Amino acid sequence: MTAREVSLAVEVGGVRLKNPVVTASGCAGYGREYARFYPLARLGAVVVKSTTLEPRLGNPPPRVVETPAGMLNSIGLQNPGVDRVISEEIPWLREQGATIVVNVAGFSLREYAELARRLDRVEGVSGLELNISCPNVERQGTSFCTRPDTARDVVRVAREATGLPLWVKLSPNVADIGEMAQAVAEAGADAISLINTLVGMAIDVDARRPVLPRGTGGLSGPAIRPVALAMVYRVAQVVEVPVVGMGGIATARDALAFLLAGASAVAVGTASFSNPVAAVDIVEGIESYLREQGFSDVRAFVGLANPDLRAPRGVTPARAGPRPGGSPGGPAPPACPAAETPLGQEEGPG
Amino acid sequence: MPAIARARLLANREVAPGHYRMDLACPAVTEGALAGQFCNLLMPGWPLTVDPLLPRPMSYHSLDHAAGRFAVLFQVVGRGTALLSRLEPGDGVHVVGPLGRPFPLAAPDPWVLVGGGVGVAPLLALAQAGRARGASLEVLVGAQSAPRLLAVDGFRALDLEPRLATDDGSAGFAGFVTDLLARRLADGARYRTVFACGPVPMLRRVQALATDHRLSAYLSLEALMACGVGACMACVRPVRRDGEAAGYLRLCVDGPVVAAGEVVFD
């Protein structure tokens, strides 16, 4: 056991993170609420709530319902719109010293392009995360995320509109997650984040109708963690861009499992609802685990449980041309793990 | 600044069928807490257990800042509250608080506090605070029947004699507590501010009575919450300002206490 430093810094698709833990979009607003509990600069990044071109009121209540080891939400993308996010939220986040990734959601290709364009040169924005799970109003409301061609189109138009690093957030509600990942990577995604929520429903038996006014909602929380882990593992085998893993991560051991599956970073969402400092606890837990296990660099830990890993281990592969958004760099990861400790423990309920 | 702390359970008593008063020692979430605010009780076994997942938001029912103690009053309505009802003295419970907006203690008196069912929960803490600042106040407590009247002894301990109403007439006024409020107003009771908490039909009636009698009124509202800190946008309630729709309030940070004139119940 040594007290030496563990390097936690990773680079995810051109976004430099001081550690591999970020907030999951939609679970931490624009950071203000959790800043009452911890300094936002403690995290790798704040990934803000899905931001749309126009302000959105959101769905009528009830908007959430608790389910076994999880919850369904149907918030309806309530947000103040991109212009107010740029004028009010991002400057405030910059003052907090946070690394900022702006999650954007559009209802047409034009909207994604316009969002990317408006955020392109905003001071303090390190990257964009594309929420492609929205209905495409130009195609009878089919979600962009359900087909490789429509997902690819979103990435392409955003890519043309900005030099910022693009993370593309995939929905698990698809037949072949690997095919979706390949499609968005080919279209120019710098990183892939997954999973978004699973479609679910709860029915009020006595009232004889769905609990949520819109019927279905998005399932999150520990209930979806095994699904998320399997999908991260799969995607990390088929793409050469970094992966940000999320879905039910509540503890450092959960996060470590995602890193082992091949994620370069993880996002913490629903866990913050019962533990407001969950994300910071996870940063500290990862650091102490790696130290105990003799790792000096988290990047050497990424993918160790995934022999067929193709995704890079917390670094961005060299790309042609300059990037306005972030600069690749930092020391190369060690070629092999710094420790020989076998990592045979199962993630468990603790 | 809300704290996250482990509270020690002092007592957990079934004070009416299916209703529990839980007394907790936890200076960190008692310090600075005000009547009308709430705390999130995390599920027993947290953080190792994840089912049920979400915290249970509960109003401060009683506050003893000097001793670092508080109480919550809750009805068993599902798995989470059932688990909480089974905790015993000496057990630990993780709590996040204080959260939300308190009752405005500067509101002009005389006050009338109107509680229906378990909605009486935040009003005892308000009566404590009102007593401490010397406010003139009256308390109306309603329930379905006499055994379900809550917190009556707590008010009496403050030298307040609550006026009671029961739906079945088994104690006090026969009828809803809002009928009792209407009767008191008709009889010339000179209130200046109404504070109320209870089921929605009751609050709607309080809202109407307050408008008719030109009283300030503040309602403590309830909603399904997830985070309790303003991040998730789950616990929204439509509001109006100057008679016009004004979007949604997050009850966890913009409430749970809301000026009655802003609330839209439909």
Structure write-up:
- Chain A contains 8 helices and 16 strands.
- Chain A has an 8-stranded parallel beta sheet with strand order 3-16-15-10-9-8-7-4. A 4-stranded antiparallel beta sheet of chain A has the order 5-6-14-11, with no helix packed on it.
- Chain A has helices at 82-95, 109-119, 148-161, 177-186, 225-238, 252-261, 271-274, 278-292, and strands at 10-12, 15-17, 21-23, 46-47, 64-67, 70-73, 100-105, 125-131, 166-169, 191-194, 198-201, 203-204, 209-210, 216-220, 243-246, 265-268.
- Residues 318-350 of chain A have low confidence and may be disordered.
- Chain A is α/β, with parallel strands linked by helices and 350 residues long.
- In chain A, helix 3 (148-161) packs parallel to helix 4 and helix 5 runs parallel beside helix 6 (252-261).
- Chain A has a single domain (10-300), classed as Alpha-Beta Barrel (TIM Barrel), CATH 3.20.20.
- The radius of gyration of chain A is 19 Å and the shape is globular.
- Chain B is an alpha/beta fold and 266 residues long.
- In chain B, 19% of the residues lie in helices and 35% in strands.
- Chain B has 6 helices and 16 strands.
- Chain B has helices at residues 27-30, 79-85, 121-132, 152-156, 177-186, 200-212, and strands spanning 3-16, 19-25, 38-41, 56-59, 62-64, 69-75, 92-99, 111-116, 137-143, 163-166, 173-174, 193-197, 216-220, 236-241, 244-250, 257-259.
- In chain B, the strands form 3 sheets. In chain B, strands 4-3-7-1-2-6-5 form a 7-stranded antiparallel beta sheet. Chain B has a 7-stranded mixed beta sheet with strand order 11-10-9-8-12-13-16, with helices on both faces.
- The longest helix of chain B has 13 residues, at 200-212.
- Chain B is globular and about 55 Å long.
- The interface between A and B is large, with 38 and 37 residues.
